[in-house]
Amino acid sequence: MVSANGVGLTRLREGTELVRIGEPLRPESAAWRYGDQFGRRRNCQILMAGGGLGALGVLLASGVGAGLSVAVFGGLIVNAVNTIVHGNPEKVVARMRTDNAGTVAMRSPARG
């Protein structure tokens, strides 16, 4: 925009030229003076908001991943403790010879 002695000239993006005659209104004067700063501030805010949302997404994804890994690790610990306390249910604890079935493997009772 060009302005001198109450006459303003500007060109729109599509090529239209506008002429203002007389003193500019307050919003027009502010846009003429600070328009480039407003644009920079807006772009900065958009970038900051996008970066913040991206960081939040990464934080949530890593939290979900950490939660799953804790759950899996917790399950492994519970299984290990059960095996230590109750023994391995697949382990043969005795073999018995019978008249009808021959040798039968005796296992630990099922835990529940």
What is the arithmetic mean of pLDDT? 82
The strand line-up of the biggest sheet is: 1-2-3
The shape is: rod-shaped
* Helical residues, percent: 40-55%
Give the biggest sheet: 3 strands, antiparallel
Q: How many individual helices?
A: 1
Helix-strand topology string: EEEHEE
Task: Summarize the SSE layout with pairings.
Layout: E1 2-4, E2 7-11, E3 17-21, H1 26-86, E4 92-98, E5 102-107
Antiparallel strand pairs: 1-2, 2-3, 4-5
Quick overview of this protein structure:
With 112 residues, this protein is α+β, with helices and mostly antiparallel strands.
List its traits.
three-stranded antiparallel beta sheet; 23% strand; 112 residues; alpha+beta
Task: Write structural notes for this entry.
This protein has 112 residues and is α+β, with helices and mostly antiparallel strands. The chain contains one helix and five strands; from the N terminus they run βββαββ. A three-stranded antiparallel β-sheet has the order 1-2-3, with no helix packed on it. Strands 4-5 form a two-stranded antiparallel ribbon. The longest helix is centred in the middle third of the chain and has 61 residues, at 26-86. It is rod-shaped and about 120 Å long. 0% of the residues are buried.
